[in-house]
Amino acid sequence: MFAAEDLxxxxxxxxxxxxxxxxxxxxxxxxxxLLAAACGARAGESVLELGCGAGVxxxxxxxxxxxxxxxxxxxxxxxxxxxxxxxxxxxxxxTVHEGDxxxxxxxxxxxxxxxxIANPPYFAPQNGTAAxxxxxETAQREDTPLAEWVRQGLKRLKPSGHLxxxxxxxxLDDILFALHGRAGAIRILPIAARQGRDAGRxxxxxxxxxxxxxxxLAPLVLHARAYHAGDAEDLSEVAQSILRFGQxxxx
Length: 251
Prior knowledge:
Layout: E1 7-12, E2 17-22, H1 31-38, E3 46-50, H2 56-64, E4 69-74, H3 77-89, E5 94-98, H4 106-109, E6 113-118, H5 134-140, H6 146-155, E7 157-168, H7 172-179, E8 183-192, E9 199-208, E10 215-216, E11 220-221, H8 237-243
Parallel strand pairs: 3-4, 3-6, 4-5, 6-7, 8-10, 8-11
Antiparallel strand pairs: 1-2, 7-9, 8-9
Helix pairs in contact: 1-2, 6-7
Keywords: Methyltransferase, S-adenosyl-L-methionine, Transferase
Pfam family, one: MTS
GO molecular function: methyltransferase activity
């Protein structure tokens, strides 16, 4: 488990959440906040986050929508413990299960959810240099194939439940292939750093068993300026509403 001196305490959604994160391990940034904003859960519904890490996405969702039953699955015990600590520190209920999604814990195999959300690792097994920190490497390097993340997410959904993923844009074809014949009503939201730039990320929302045609949405542009102009924050209006004020991202 992480010692106190190995952690930082960071603000999310404008300070509405205070999250403890490892100083040198995997550290959440925008992506889990965007993922939470794209989940359309309502009071009384249940949500499972696959690979919840320190709990940022689940807790952002819990802060935005009261009365949602939140569950997380995390393979690294130290991060699972940190997610529980963060939930308690922020006065939110989050049940964290420890285990590998490819070998789902028995408790989760008995459950189904209205929504499943996930931010799967972005880096392919042989892509780039391994991180020095083992926890960060596990969080960022694909071990379980992306198709298995999709398959397991769909298995844990109730009929007509929603699966929402955030992933590198170059993995979109893998996601769509994994969803084919299993889910529809697919909504693809490209995320670009600046106007005129290629999308670096995509959020993909789908509904289990649906047949509704796919829609490619207008991109979400994160920064207001067309170029980087120093360290001053220049978030676009819509990005500010999500990242600073906890608004939803209806897709």
